[in-house]
Amino acid sequence: MLLSNWKGANLRTVALAYPQFEAIEPPPSSEAILAWEGVLQPFSDCSKLGFILDDLRMDRSVQVQAGSLSHDPDCKAVHRPLPFLDRLRPSEAHFKITVLAYAPKRHPQAFGKSPEITKRRFPFHDHINTDGSICPYSANETHLPWHGQTLPTFLDYVAIWAAKHHVWEMTGSNPNATWLGSVAPHTPSEMLRQVGRNEPCPCGSGKKFKKCHFAIYERLRVEIPIHVLR
């Protein structure tokens, strides 16, 4: 697909699937070719909030529509009560998000702008990347599942991440707080073990691992261990 067609397709699909997001000019300091800004309210429908959060806790699927999570009507799971439900404020979970899109092979990025979601504000947050972008993908994915998919797919991941972040913040925003679902170690040794040399680099650049961060992880493996969770 031509780049112009890819850009046009994403502008149309985001406008349809996430009408609350407005296309904006990408920051001049970035290499982004498209950008959007809008608000996610993952709990705008919280009639079955306990079921939704239990599904996220158990890595089961939930439905996402325009950033709002709902319980899958086909779910057959037996849901367990969650002890932290009374500490949540689902109606206050509003997140102003900026999304940057790059050339198709490179992963998009999302940033929590208001309220601010950064390492400066949340130093114990293991699901924010070093550049301030959020890491919305699931722990069972060894490399980021992008492959040039349309931006609404990525925004669905971001909406689920926002729901998990709200729970984490409301349960303490510290190393003992609750993060729903599995997490995966991102130490250099783990990344070298999990990712094949010819697979896409976990950083989302679109390059093969051996031509991107492989040498960096090899060096870090013999230096100070780094423990980062996705």
Describe this structure in words.
The protein has 230 residues and is an alpha+beta fold. Helices cover 26% and strands 13% of the residues. The strands form 2 sheets. A 4-stranded antiparallel β-sheet has the order 1-2-5-6. Strands 3-4 form a two-stranded antiparallel ribbon.
Top keywords for this entry?
230 residues; alpha+beta; two-stranded antiparallel ribbon; 5 helices; 13% strand; globular; disordered C terminus
Global Rg: 18 Å
Roughly what is the average pLDDT, rounded to an integer?
86
Main sheet characteristics: 4 strands, antiparallel
Biggest sheet, strands in spatial order?
Answer: 1-2-5-6
Q: Could you list the spans in which at least 5 consecutive residues all have pLDDT below 50? A: 224-230
Shape label: globular
Helix % is 25-40%
Head-to-tail CA distance between termini: 31 Å
> Structural class of the helix and strand makeup?
alpha+beta
Q: How much beta, percentage-wise?
A: 5-15%
Number of strands: 6
**N-to-C SSE series?**
HEEHEEEEHHH
Total of helices: 5
Write the layout of secondary structure elements.
Layout: H1 3-17, E1 22-24, E2 34-40, H2 49-57, E3 63-65, E4 68-70, E5 95-101, E6 109-114, H3 151-170, H4 188-194, H5 214-221
Helix pairs in contact: 4-5
Summarize the structure.
The protein has 230 residues and is α+β, with helices and mostly antiparallel strands. It is built from five helices and six strands.
